[in-house]
Structure formats: C-alpha cells, structure tokens
Amino acid sequence: MPVEGDNSVESLRSLRRNSRSNPRKIFSVGCDLEQSAKAMSSTLLSISITQDLKGLEREWDALLSQSRSNQFFLGWKWQSLWWDCCIYGQLKVILVRDADELIGVAPLFEADGCWRLAGGEEVADYLDWFAKPGCEADVAEAICDAIRKQGGSRIVLRNLCPESLINTQIGEREQYAGWNVRREVEDVSPRLELAASWDEYVSSLNKKDRHELRRKIRRLESAGDLRWYAVSPSDYQPADLDDFVRLHRASALDKAGFMTDQMVGFFGRLMETFIPSGEALLYFLELDGVRIASTICFDFQLEMLLYNSGYDPEYSRLAAGLLLKAFCIEDAIRRGKRGFDFLQGDEPYKYDLGGVDVPIYQISMEEPAGPEGRS
Fold this sequence. Notes:
The chain is α+β, with helices and mostly antiparallel strands. The chain is 34% helix and 28% strand. The protein has 12 helices and 19 strands. It has helices at residues 7-18, 57-66, 76-85, 136-149, 165-171, 198-204, 207-221, 238-251, 253-258, 261-274, 320-334, 348-352; strands spanning 26-28, 36-40, 43-50, 90-91, 93-98, 101-106, 108-111, 114-117, 130-131, 154-160, 175-176, 179-188, 191-193, 226-230, 280-287, 290-300, 303-311, 339-341, 359-366. The strands form 3 sheets. It has a 7-stranded mixed beta sheet, covered by helices on one side. Strands 1, 2, 3, 5, 6 and 9 form a 6-stranded antiparallel beta sheet that branches. A hairpin with a 2-residue loop joins strand 16 and strand 17 (303-311). Helix 3 packs antiparallel against helix 10. It is elongated. The relative contact order is 0.13. Residues 1-42 have low confidence and may be disordered.
C-alpha cells in the first residue's frame, strides 16, 4: 500500500486513475443506459456499478447500519480509505436500488479476471455484501447477475463470517444462480462474551488460565512503575505511530515482514482517520516511563475489536504483550461492551484470555463449463 506523499506512489495512483476511461462513470449492466432494470420477486430493481465512492457516504452507512451484515470494515470510511491506498485492480461497487431507495451494496474490485471483495483482504478481517433486511435474497441474485453481465466468470470472496449475507445466501449451496459454488474454512476468529465486571471476567476463565493471568499481573506490577492507557483522540501525534510501528516490527519476524514502509503509510492514514473520532483506540503499556507494548482496537457498537499489536521482546518474561491485551478487555468492560473480538488468527494468547473460535469462510464461484455455462 502506498505511503502518502511518496512520488512513486502518486505515479501508481495516476496509472490507476488513467486506466479508467472515466473515474466517475457509472456503468450500466448489460446496456448503454446509466442504469438497467431487472424484475425480481415482482419488484423492479435497478442495478448500477460505480468506481467512485464520493457522495455515497450517507446512504451507504444508513443501509449498513440497518443490515444484518453490519461490520466495521464495511463502513464507508474504511472502504474509502482502503481504495484510496489501493494500487491494484479496478473498483466496481454494485448498487442495487428499489426505485430511489438503496437496498443493496456489493463493494468489489476486479483484478486479473477475478472479482473480489473490496476493503482489503489482507487488512480487513470481515468483508461482505449488505442489504436491507428482507431483501438479501433478491440483492444477492442481482449482484451475481450483474457480475455475469460485466463478463465476470470467477468470484473469490474471503473473510466471511458465518452470519454474513454471502455465506447465508450462497455458502451452503453447491450451485447458486447459475454459478458453481465452493466454500471452505480459511481461518478462525476467536471471540469473547464479556462479563459485567473485570472480577467476573477473570473468574470465568478456567482454573489454569485464571491463575496464570493473576500471577503475570502481579509479576508485572512488581517490576516497576506500571501504566497503561489509550491515547486521547486530541493528543494523538505521529510519534505515537512511530512507537506502535517499532513495537509491532520488533515483536515477530512475520510482523516485521508485514509492516513495510507502504503499510506504515496505510496505518498512519488509518490512525489519522479513526483515532480523532474515537472509533480507533491506540493503547500503550509503559514500564518506568518506557513504552513496551501497544495495541490498536476498534470501538464498534457493543464490541471491542483487537486489530493489531506489538511488544518489545526484551520484556517477554513479563508477558507485556498478553497483559496489555488483557487490560484492553478490562477497558472494554468499563466501556460497557458486551463482546471482545480478537479477530482472525489462532494465536495461543486468544484462548488464554477466553476466546472461542468462530469460523471464517472463503467462497469461490465459477460459471460452469459447457452449454449452460459461458459460451
């Protein structure tokens, strides 16, 4: 992902923009008009495809908030941020309307002949399409039909929750609307139902994990002057990003490989976008005035989402990384959250802190070969 202000990146953005005949164009599906109409379930739906997210924020987020697919990473701000930083593929957001009312959205992009979910497979833990409640079946069918009419013959949809629109409408079938469907579990996303208090949460852990957590907290508290906190939205500074990146890169080789200079640029934009509004919380754990661990969480409705983290390996014996995550759980309880989502990955600490696996699916769709498939 690009770094803001990098001239080479700006050139890549220009190439992306110039590859479009008109970045504001709304493509019709199967005709030369701005919108095409399709009769489905006795309702006339209009379907359009846009490459420009500007002007959609209000109705996009209004629809998302009432849909059954409401996820942080589907919000207009996240999707816009990701696409602004993305340097590959062609954005193709499918909009489904009933008269003038937006009833369905499919954030997608096409690259190398394959249609995929927009929002960043590598940086967004949950992706999906979303629809007005009660319209999911019609919207899903309309989206698949629109992709076919655009010449699409292969769709790969990743990072799907069990309750996602795509999984519930398509995932349990071998065929859907003329497409062959294959579903597989690609990862797990441990989650935790929160107790009403910190003491109740600790007591809910199994005997071994409860004992270990208390022992590690006592050891950390005896190691020096301990402080943990979330950076105030009004106090966030670029130096906070620098400290997070330093701790993230130091904590594991795979994290160091992930946190390229381009990814640092993306995280910087992320923090600038979501910390001032309170939607993102940047936590630090300090020992004797030194920042030794950090996490980024998203505050989303009744849940806290643990997005990313890092720690100084010199403090591994104090379990600094794990304990800051435990303190984030404590803060989530104080904020009245009902759930704590560790997001994707089966790292052991998630289960030490009480996480329970939820499967994450990938669904692949292809048009069948032969007379019934693409000619």
